[in-house]
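Researcher: Go.
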Amino acid sequence: MSIGRERLIVNCGAHRGRGDWWQAQRSTAAHSTLVVDDTNSSVFSPDSGLVRGPRTVTCKRDEAEGNAWLDMSHDGYSPTFDLIHRRRLFLRPAATICAARTG
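Model: Structure:
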């Protein structure tokens, strides 16, 4: 997601194949999101898919007068830190973020 030429929410990109870069792009730190104590919110096996991830994921979108509220959360940090990660964004039609909160 960007505003004009400024990137707001990004990730590290994609890399085909295996190896160190493949493992790195599967980490929470490879994305524009909360990282707690240098810990991933999900655990992947080295060779295949998800071993442990959030049990509850919510996503709510409300619109009024062309504006949009995105309210999202997951409990991926709950087993380790007893935390829920919630992100709420308010988007205006002019592509300007008025309020962004994460925590």
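Model: The chain has one domain: 2-102.
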